């Protein structure tokens, strides 16, 4: 049997491996809820930061300073360009994601959270962040 056939055979049986499950499955869904909802919070906070950066030059330069640690944030080279204040917005996404994950994990780790609740919060926050990128709605909306 060829190597690709062996790999394909293993991939066909992959879901059954997952169906066997863990010997010690988690008893609550709070940790999963914390992980998923924090992703939505991070995306939402990045867009909030973006809109605040658009309100003034001072805030934009502050946000640019937050992202100095990211390579390429300010190369000074016209050929390579820069990503500018987007690096600070990415930093805010990272910080808000990690902080919210830590806080939600501590709040929800021993609680059973319904799947519908997890989905609605995660989906709602990501949809809100996506809507905030829509120029006709947010371009001239004063904060």
- Low-pLDDT segments, ≥5 res: none
> Could you spell the SSE succession in H and E letters?
HHHHHHH
Helix percentage range: 55-70%
Q: What is the 3D form?
A: extended
State the total count of DSSP E strands.
Answer: 0
User: Structural class per helix/strand content?
Assistant: mainly alpha
What is the average per-residue confidence, as pLDDT, rounded to a whole number?
84
Biggest β-sheet description? none
Number of helical segments with 4 or more residues: 7
The share of residues in extended strands comes to under 5%
Distance between the termini: 64 Å
Rounded to the nearest angstrom, the radius of gyration is 21 Å
